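Backbones bend. We report:
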Amino acid sequence: MSYSKEELKEIESRINAEIESTRETIEKFRELTKPIAPDDSIGRVSRMDAINNKGVNDSSLQKAELKLKNLEIAVTKINEPDFGKCRRCSNQIPIGRILLLPQITICVNCAARQ
């Protein structure tokens, strides 16, 4: 069983919307991860807090960049016959899961076994 043409259009639309949203998120994280100049007089405690926040934001930026990469791959493969099939068990991934997480490549059952 594969997705209908209408479902594929809905999935493609969802992926494109998610790509746009993720690009905006990446830009925000890039702003937040800019280095703090040593000559900025923000105080020692504030500087330590800023350094800690930068580390958290760096991690979030990396996750967002990986998500974008996976979304871009998904949108290029949408018309391939194996699109939406779990890469582990080859069962069709339910459309609800694809719409919720369009970059996903494994079904819920296989994800639970990880």
Summary: Helices lie at 5-32, 44-77, 95-100, 108-112. The CA atoms of residues 33 and 54 lie 5 Å apart. DSSP finds four helices and no strands in the chain.
